[in-house]
Write a sequence for this structure.
């Protein structure tokens, strides 16, 4: 029993030791600012209690349990915040980033003789955004890469092999946003949230040239001597780095092979349209010129209580009345409208074949089971069946012969059973 107690105490103590870092870090928040296309980032820790008269230092490890081999001075801090700079060119940082996407930061008081720990193994995100793994985030098609190489910090030929492939971007939102940023000379990193994060799984081509300095950093080379996208458009140039003893790295450079924009001159719709309750109507706009670059449009209904319209131009009626459907270009400069009237649902279905009778009313006869026609008093032919001459039914009863025979059989069985019962009743 004593051994069991000791085991329980040891397990409890171990669990407590594991929980202590999490408890001490509970009130601390961390924000990340990536400031270079090489994975260099600043992490701001908030919720701290620091002494401005002291100095503080930090260490980075791969796991919670790992010992810190080297400490680095923190130059930016206040009474409640500290900024940790994980920058390019430090071998200890490279060793961690090469291995894991989540690292652990410890901050301690350098001035205090006891080296009091302020932050104990707090997790930070070391993953490199896909647009930031090289010194380029956009390259124009036709660029000569053998004269200005692609650089990949933290990975190089000594510990990895480099591969690439093209994938055309078809998402109009991405292309439109890209053009907007390009026109205002903005930051293409704004695109990152719209771009893919799932890399291809096959069809990789080795880089034409892949090399690097030293044992750790500054991989460089080129996918092709001259960038050569397969066709016109905007492309991902996917980049994949794989090696021994390091994690795989994926990213991309955008390749601009877009043709000059063709301005949209006008949009047109039918002037009027009609839709029955219970049905739908789809409007298809015509663009001029037909090969205009930007055909992104929005739809609206002037009275949604009458009818609504979705992004595909499909109108759903709600009640009888009229509404004006308007289509608008993305920039808002081109519009077209169609007055749509919602009408009552027709009583004639597609399977009916109405024709005029002698009194002018519509008749819905013409059963395929009877080829009999009758002349009315005015001599016109109708498709009304003669109800006195039934096919497969008893005259003027409307009951099928099969049902009638079944009823007769049932009555016969009942009479037979009754007589049989009476015969043996006295036994």
């Amino acid at each position: 029993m004593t051994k069991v107690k000791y085991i329980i105490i040891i397990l409890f103590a171990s669990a407590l030791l594991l929980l202590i870092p999490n408890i001490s870090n509970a009130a601390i928040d961390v924000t990340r600012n990536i400031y270079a296309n090489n994975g260099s980032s600043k992490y701001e820790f908030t919720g701290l209690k620091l002494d401005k008269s002291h100095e503080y230092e930090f260490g980075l490890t791969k796991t919670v349990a790992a010992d810190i081999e080297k400490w680095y001075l923190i130059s930016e801090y206040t009474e409640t915040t500290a900024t940790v700079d994980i920058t390019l060119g430090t071998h200890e940082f490279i060793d961690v980033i090469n291995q894991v996407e989540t690292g652990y930061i410890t901050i301690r008081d350098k001035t205090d003789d006891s080296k009091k720990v302020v932050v104990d193994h707090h997790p930070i995100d070391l993953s490199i955004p896909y647009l930031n793994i090289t010194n380029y985030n956009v390259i124009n098609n036709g660029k000569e890469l053998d004269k200005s190489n692609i650089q990949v910090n933290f990975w190089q030929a000594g510990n990895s092999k480099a591969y690439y492939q093209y994938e055309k971007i078809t998402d109009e939102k991405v292309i439109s946003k890209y053009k907007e940023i390009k026109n205002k000379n903005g930051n293409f990193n704004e695109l990152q949230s719209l771009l893919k994060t799932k890399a291809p799984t096959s069809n990789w081509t080795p880089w034409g040239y892949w090399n690097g300095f030293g044992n750790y950093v500054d991989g460089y080379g080129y996918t092709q001597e001259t960038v050569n996208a397969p066709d016109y458009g905007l492309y991902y140039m996917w980049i994949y780095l794989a090696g021994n003893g390091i994690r795989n790295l994926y990213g991309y450079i955008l390749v601009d092979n877009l043709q000059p924009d063709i301005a949209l001159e006008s949009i047109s719709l039918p002037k009027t349209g009609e839709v029955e309750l219970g049905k739908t109507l789809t409007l298809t706009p015509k663009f001029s010129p037909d090969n205009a670059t930007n055909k992104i449009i929005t739809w609206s209904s002037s009275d949604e209580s009458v009818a609504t319209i979705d992004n595909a131009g499909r109108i759903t009626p709600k009640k009888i009345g009229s509404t004006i459907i308007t289509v608008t270009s993305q920039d808002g400069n081109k519009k077209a409208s169609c007055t749509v009237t919602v009408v009552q649902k027709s009583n004639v279905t597609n399977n009916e074949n109405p024709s005029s009778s002698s009194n002018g009313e519509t008749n819905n006869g013409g059963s395929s089971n009877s080829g009999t026609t009758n002349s009315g008093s005015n001599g016109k032919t109708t498709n009304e069946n003669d109800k006195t001459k039934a096919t497969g039914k008893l005259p003027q009863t409307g009951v099928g012969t099969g049902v009638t025979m079944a009823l007769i059989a049932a009555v016969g069985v009942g009479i037979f059973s009754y007589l049989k019962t009476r015969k043996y009743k006295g036994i």
